[in-house]
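User: Hi! I'm working on a homework problem where we have to compare a predicted structure to a textbook description. Could you give me the structure for the chain below?
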Amino acid sequence: MEYNGGNLAADHLCVLVHGLWGNPNHMKSVAKALRDTYSEDELYLLVAKRNSDSFTYDGIERGGERVCLEIEEELEKIRNKGGKITKLSIVGYSLGGLVARYAIGLLEMRGILREVEPVNFTTFASPHLGVRTPLRGWHNHIWNVLGARTLSMSGRQLFTIDDYRDTGRPLLAVLADPESIFISGLKRFKHRTLYANVVNDRSAVYYTTGISKTDPYMNTSRIKANYLKGYEDVILDPLNPVSPLVSKGGKGIAGFTAGSLGWLRNAPLMFALVVFIPIGVTAFLLNSVVQTFRSSKRIRLHESGLTDIPVENYRSPIWIKDIRGTVEDVYENLNSLQEESYLQASDDEGDDDGDLNKAEAEILALERKKSHPQFPTLALTPAQFAMIDELDKVGFRKYPVWIHKVRHSHAAIIVRSDTPRFSEGLTVLKHWMKEEFLI
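Assistant: Happy to help. Predicted structure tokens:
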């Protein structure tokens, strides 16, 4: 990566973390935006590389340990050369945002965040609530249960069906626990910012990247976009992103209810199963078996301390009180075909509440009461609702992004490759540099 590094005069280290199936080159435009704005005397760049390509299958925990080690090694290398880093910023893209949040917890645990000043934490299109699509009934089991088993440990964690360190809770729930090192570390950053695609993100939809209980962008013909001045047609005003449009019949978006689309909502899924199973899905599943096997082998070596990472250094208590091309496209296409469902008005109208404990049932009952017909509450899990509440308490500056030119906004938001089709992503990076990033 040509933008890596900096001069010894630089006192601010910025770390970039790519996403699932990713590699350092995916962060090239982000690195370029930083370097075009800040010289090597002002900012030192580290594009993380230990967790590249198929290594991203190995789980958020191991990815976070690899990134934490890279950061510690870079800080030591700079010190040994006579430099001194006093400020730290971390940027995560897609899965990299979750890996970065885990690494922040480890940096907190190891005292690094008390040695340097945490300044910026930014995520682009990161699934903070996982990638479980808000679905009810058998559709939930087809995608959310089967899909979770196609990406090894990362898949289980993204679909929140894992049991993190025998806590009985998924890792993402622990990442958002206010008593954990992860939230403690996250709070130390002066500036926490996220950018979330509102449409055409085939990998991570708006509710999870924007940490939201609703998705006002499900039917864009019913809303009017309100853009930020100077960033028109790309970045929405975070305080008032959309206004409802009133239809000719006068009902407006309020007439849009949870059951209005009926069985037609699942037609794309049925079509995809019929068309893609003989071709793309077969290849995807075969690749998933191979990658899961390889990932499981790496995980065993990692846990046994047989890799170059001293795993024992990163397994202290987590509680403060205790202190690649086609395959990727097939996954993204199938993921994008899952239509979101909403919480029903009462618990006897079809929500899958049978397996919930009393506390979880009370969370859903409360969220049902809060739901508004204009933008109804999504059928998230109790754990996801809790994640939203806790992350909102920490505080993020949230920017909805509307990419129009391509139907692959997940890549366009950071200009993942140098193509004119992704040019709207340059507006996102411009806004980040001018309005959000603190040096």
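For your comparison, note the following. The first helix runs from residue 28 to 37. The first strand starts at residue 12 and ends at 17. Good luck with the assignment!
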